[in-house]
Amino acid sequence: MQATVGLPLVIYLSVFGFTRFTPLNVAMGVLGYYSLFVAALNLLPIRPLDGAKAWYVVRVMFQKQESKAPKRSTGWRSYR
Fold first, then answer.
1. How many structural domains is the chain composed of?
2. Cα–Cα distance between 59 and 51 in angstroms, integer?
3. Which of the chain's ends, N or C, has fewer CB atoms near its CB within 10 Å?
């Protein structure tokens, strides 16, 4: 959620630069970079944070993908 707020703000500031309105510049800068920082911090694989669940799901997805791969035989007709 934080990345969906922070990423467009940071991209806008990178492409177009700051506006002539100082309060808007402060709000966009703080909210953009702070939101990306919170999103990155939230993905740390520590138990109370969401990263513990997210990295577990990624690991399970790779395990399921590996189990679907066809097994190669090591018989006399195989190329191994």
1. 1
2. 12
3. C
